[in-house]
Structure formats: structure tokens, C-alpha cells
Amino acid sequence: MKMICIKLSMVVSLLLILGMISSTVYADRTKYLKPTASDLSKAELKDIAAEFFSVKWGIPKEDILKAKTVICLIDSKIDYWDIAIYSCPGTDGHNIGELALRRDGTLYWWCIRSSEYYEAEPDLMHMGTIITPTEADATAQEIYEQTMEHLKNEFLVDQPEQYEYEMALVEEEHFSDGNPVWIVYVKDGEELLWKGLFGYTGLYMTLVPAQQEYKTYFLDEYTFTAYADDILGLSNKALSMRTSVKIIRIQRAQADREETVETLKTLVPLYKKWKQAHPRGWDEMEDLIDEYGWMAGF
Hints:
Largest sheet: 5 strands, antiparallel
Number of strands: 10
Distance between the termini: 47 Å
Structural class: alpha+beta
Radius of gyration: 22 Å
Order of helices and strands: HHHHEEEEEHEHEEEEHHHH
């Protein structure tokens, strides 16, 4: 049973404790196999993983070889090696990569930062749904100009205009908690050289060499709860105090009328201000206002 890669969001943070309990309860259901003499050795497997992630993270293979690594052979419909790499220097010091290889050493799937794939070089622009930009979105010209500036400043490219640029506003499940993102491919003919991400309003997210993993998939800027937590000073308080919990309590009918009204009167003005800079809004808050806003006069 492979590690489940969980997309980090404010709502998911509420369920972390339950997830940890669930993992403990079901851990004994994982079936492990004993390697045979014909299997790859753990040293060979770690070397393969280090080579793979050195490209994805853009850090030296030698650093990854020093990281804590857990390797086991999983009994499944397709038996596979599960290689989990932890606490690698320069990668924020948490569980930062998992690679699954078939017993012959070929790629089965891989996962970094909550994003799981079954191919080494996923084409996320065309895996997602390309949508037509609206007045809420940055223009393709703005994204093009920003990309060239980042190539100049980050990669010291003297003449970025010499390359071809493919860009699209895309809705894809890996990105930005459901918000569309601008994906940019920078090419020299058919060869992909760099790939970039920008938020739908044009906020820069990341630009990396073609085979490297994106450095981020979302921005707190596009999540209303992160904004409200910051304004209300809730970010470092108990989980029960956070904006996401207040919203969930109303959604699940756990809040009485008084609490619902108080929450709405606190959050709706903040949301309207936040939405001025994020015209696509946030569906959960829109639904909350539609269903319960009348209680607080909205």
C-alpha cells in the first residue's frame, strides 16, 4: 500500500489527526515481500532514487545519498519497491519524496510535495483543462513578459526572446486548490528547456528547468482562509480557532445560529476585501454566503 500523497490545504489540516490515527490502524494491512537474490539490492535502489530526485529537486545526488531512506518491497497487484526519502539537505527537512519501482527497476509512480505521477515527465499543461482567460485573469502577454524577466534574472539568459513560448490558463487537479494557473513552456524548437507557473492573476509561482519538479503548486494568496487567519491572528493558535474550522462548523450544522451570525459578520467583510484582488473568488465562501448569508444580513 503506497504512501498517500495528501494535498496540503486548510481543510485537510483539520483532518491530520484522524489521518494519523487511520494510518496507524491500517498499517498492518500492508503486505511486505522478502527480496530474493534476483532482486535489486537496497544500495542499487537508493542510487536510482538519488539519481531521479537529484534532477527533480535540482540538488546534488551526493546530498540525497546522505538522507534518511526507507526501502521496502510491497506485495501488491504489481509488486513494487517503495523508496521514501526523508530530511534531505535543502528540502525543508520533512518527508519530501517517494519513488515506486517495479521489481525490474522501472518506474511505477513517484511523489513530491503532495503530487503523484505515473510518468517521469508529466505534461501538466495538456493533462489539465485549458480555459479561456477572463477579465479576472492576467493576459498571455503579461505572463510572457514575466517569464522572460525571470529567465534573465534567475537563469541569466541574455536573449530570452530567441525561444518559443507555449502558455495556457489551465485547471488541473495538482494546482492551487482548484484555482486555474498559467503554465508556461519555454522551448527551443521541439526541445523543452524550462517550465513555469503563475497564478491566474499573474502572481509568480515558479520557473524551473524542464525535467525539474515545480517548486510549488499553490499560493496561500489564493486561499481565503490563509488570508483571514493572518488578519485575525489565528495562524499560530489552536486548530479549533482557525478560519477553516469556523467555516466547517457552519457547513456541518455544528454551529448554532448565534455562532453562525458571529462568524459570518467577521468573515464576510474580510472575504469581500480579499475578493477585490482575487476576482474568481473562493467557492466555499461563496456557497456559505448563498446558503447562510441571510442570517447576518448579507
